[in-house]
TrEMBL record:
Record's keyword annotation contains Nucleus: yes
InterPro entries per the UniProt record, alphabetical: Abitram, GCV_H/Fam206, Single_hybrid_motif
Source species of the chain: Balaenoptera musculus (Blue whale)
Family: Belongs to the ABITRAM family.
GO terms under cellular component: dendrite; filopodium tip; growth cone; lamellipodium; nuclear speck
Main subcellular localisation: other
The protein, known as: Protein Abitram
Localisation: Cell projection, Dendrite; Cell projection, Growth cone; Cell projection, Lamellipodium; Nucleus speckle
Subunit annotation: Interacts with F-actin. Interacts with G-actin.
Amino acid sequence: MATEPETPVAALAAEPAVPSLVDRYFTRWYKADVKGKPCEDHCILQHSNRICVITLAGSHPVLQSGKAIKSISYQISTNCSRLQNKVSGKFKRGAQFLTELAPLCKIYCSDGEEYTIYSCVRGRLMEVNENILHKPSILQEKPSTEGYIAVVLPKFEESKSITEGLLTQKQYEEVMVKRINATTATS
């Protein structure tokens, strides 16, 4: 018995979607409730060459509820600006060294809220994304690609251990389910 030919739409739906560049080359790690602040989650994209790209997790308040970003500042204190980071040479001389809780930038929203974004991994600061200073909306529109916060290079000896305090994609999804269940139980 002959089967009917598939429609082009059905054939396209049956084909698996091509993974994005980020999904193909990076492993996603998450830090939930950074510094004890609820829902202020960060996402760390770790490449196979151990470089880490610091981004906001999808559940971060800046990406939720239509918040408008007024400005972003890499000026951490009067004496420390992440924009002054100048890296050169094979051994990355001049890079600022970061701890897990080193602030990278501050995001100021139009509703008066202020969010500090932290490194979440130990290593050398390779670069900060200056594009988000001029166009803060890309932080919300494309948080995993053009809207990244910074690039950090962990020490080679520590590259395996940097993920010890971080959550995998599956663990993070479980945290999100618990949050949703907790909020629905209280309301």
